[in-house]
């Protein structure tokens, strides 16, 4: 009976440790619920090709995906909204490294680079943005919705997970 108890406890510990490792490396399917207000808090995103990284949640915007968010102001207008430039949102975590603390960094030429593995990603085309590197996957992208309200020009980054 003691043997069965010890075996059960050992299996529970092994199962717990393996689940933590799998969850830590899962960059897909993480919730995102974040608002960007280009008229107030995020005025630095008004110019085309401007970028901003977010790693700390805000009140009313509690979820930032796996490694945080990299938000990019497009050079292209949002379809159906006149001259309003669109935003793209990406997870900061490099899909090759799959670590929350290894972030890609935006460059001045509309790309992002992982300093750890050297993978390069195009930030201007939305999905399927891998340019080069050991990564075989693009950055995780998140849908961005436009919401005009009394608080100004607000973009809502919201995953459906």
What is the fold's blueprint, element by element?
Layout: H1 2-24, E1 32-37, E2 51-54, E3 63-64, E4 69-77, E5 85-91, E6 104-106, E7 111-114, E8 120-122, E9 130-132, E10 141-142, E11 144-149, E12 152-158
Account of the protein in words:
- By secondary structure, the chain is α+β, with helices and mostly antiparallel strands.
- It has one domain (30-158): Rieske [2Fe-2S] iron-sulphur domain (Rieske Iron-sulfur Protein, 3-layer Sandwich), CATH 2.102.10.10.
- It is 14% helix and 35% strand.
- The strands form three sheets. It has a four-stranded antiparallel beta sheet, with no helix packed on it. The protein has a four-stranded antiparallel beta sheet with strand order 2-4-5-10, with no helix packed on it. The chain has a four-stranded antiparallel beta sheet with strand order 6-7-8-9, with no helix packed on it.
- The termini are far apart.
- Residues 14-24 have low confidence and may be disordered.
The profile of the biggest β sheet is: 4 strands, antiparallel
Write out the CATH superfamily name. Rieske [2Fe-2S] iron-sulphur domain
Element pattern in H and E:
HEEEEEEEEEEEE
Judged by helices, strands and strand pairing, the structural class is alpha+beta
User: CATH top level?
Assistant: Mainly Beta
Q: Average pLDDT across residues?
A: 84
Radius of gyration: 19 Å
Oligomer: single chain
Question: Low-confidence segments, ≥5 residues, pLDDT <50?
Answer: 14-24
- How many H/I helices? 1
Shape: globular
Amount of helix:
10-25%
Strand tally? 12
CATH topology: Rieske Iron-sulfur Protein
Biggest sheet strand line-up: 3-1-12-11
Strand content: 25-35%
For the record, the count of structural domains works out to 1
CATH architecture name = 3-layer Sandwich
Distance between the termini: 44 Å
